TrEMBL record:
The keyword Transport does not apply. This is Acyl-CoA thioester hydrolase. It comes from the Bacteria. InterPro entries: 4-hydroxybenzoyl-CoA_TE, HotDog_dom_sf. Pfam families: 4HBT_2. The keyword Kinase does not apply.
Length: 143
């Protein structure tokens, strides 16, 4: 099981002509799942650096089944796959509904890097950020 679970509600406008959540909108749903973790929960833990700048370095999305807008949330489980000094990798499992009963619809991975917006360059994760990610996401990776 993932260390973090978000329920994200697709909107009617997220659908393509076939009634499935469009690829670009799926990427947005992944973002909506991770933002409360990286911004709100990290800030509540006294870590404001992630909210000041994180960039996506790499994104991969694998579709197992269509995600259909049914007026309810989709379950997005997020886990930590890799933790380096200047980046971290999140794995996502998206279910077609708020529980796991409908099976996995999407598996995705993002490589993220903390970014110094004022300086215009990537930065290293602080020790506190590394500890937060490892502890909160319980990914079993080396911190």
């Amino acid at each position: 099981m993932a260390g973090y679970v978000a329920l994200v509600r697709p909107r009617w406008s997220d659908m393509d002509v076939f009634g499935h959540v469009n690829h670009a909108k799926m990427v947005t749903l992944l973002e909506e799942a991770r933002v409360p973790l990286l911004f709100d929960e990290a800030a509540a833990a006294g870590l404001t650096g992630l909210a000041r700048g994180v960039v996506v370095v790499r994104l991969a999305v694998d579709y197992r089944a269509p995600v259909v807008v049914r007026g309810t949330e989709v379950r997005v489980e997020v886990s930590l796959a890799e933790l380096a000094f200047a980046s971290f990798t999140l794995d996502y499992t998206v279910y077609n509904g708020p529980s796991t009963e409908n099976g996995v619809a999407v598996e995705a991975r993002t490589v993220l890097a903390p970014y110094d917006v004022a300086g215009g360059r990537p930065r290293r994760l602080s020790e506190g950020e590394r500890e937060f990610l490892a502890r909160r996401l319980d990914g079993g990776v080396n911190a």
